[in-house]
Design brief:
Layout lengths: L12 H14 L4 H6 L3 H14 L8 H14 L3 H13 L4 H6 L11 H14 L7 H8 L4 H23 L15
């Protein structure tokens, strides 16, 4: 990594509470968390935003949220994010062949229409040379109401923030999911 993590005891107690929860949930403290933890205010705000986006009663299904986060991570070349988010997809019951097919979802019969429009929207939001035109937004709104479109957009942009942060600081995967190498 381009910036080292600090020993856990050097982080403020509030951040160490988040680390304790990460260790309980993932079996280890996440290196991106330790990097964000160098800025406690930003880390705390980011953790609260993530919790709001990944809550149990989100209008977006857990599987769709994870498909989106993996796809954004693939586009942004964040190996850590692909690793942890693919592991979450497996825990949410998605077979590995569907996760592997996410690289070329347009050619795969494994994705339903709602997933396809969400992934198309995800790519349009993530790729800076693309944009969301009226036709795409009309297709998105056939599957999602306005409140859910806001939440979907928030999730995509949050994952862009996270994956670009991790990629810029060269955060390596932590071995959560053993999938074939990225394309």
């Amino acid at each position: 990594m381009h910036v080292p993590t600090k020993p856990i005891k050097e982080y403020p107690w509030l951040i160490r509470l988040f680390f304790w929860n990460q260790k309980r949930r993932y079996g280890k403290v996440l290196e991106p968390g330790m990097l964000w933890g160098r800025s406690p205010w930003v880390f705390t705000t980011l953790a609260l935003l993530y919790g709001a986006l990944d809550r149990k009663h989100s209008p977006l299904s857990p599987v769709l949220r994870s498909l989106i986060t993996v796809r954004v991570s693939q586009i942004n070349h964040c190996e850590f994010c692909v690793d942890i988010n693919s592991a979450t997809l497996v825990k949410r019951g998605v077979p590995e062949n569907k996760i592997e097919a996410l690289w070329e979802w347009q050619e795969s019969p494994l994705f339903d229409q709602t997933e396809r429009v969400a992934l198309e929207y995800t790519e349009a939001v993530t790729h800076s040379e693309r944009y969301v035109d009226n036709d795409l937004m009309a297709r998105v709104k056939k599957h999602f109401d306005d409140d859910t479109v806001v939440e979907l957009t928030g999730l995509i942009t949050f994952q862009n923030l996270s994956s670009k942060f991790n990629n810029a600081l060269d955060v390596a995967p932590q071995g959560f999911c053993r999938l074939p190498p990225s394309h």
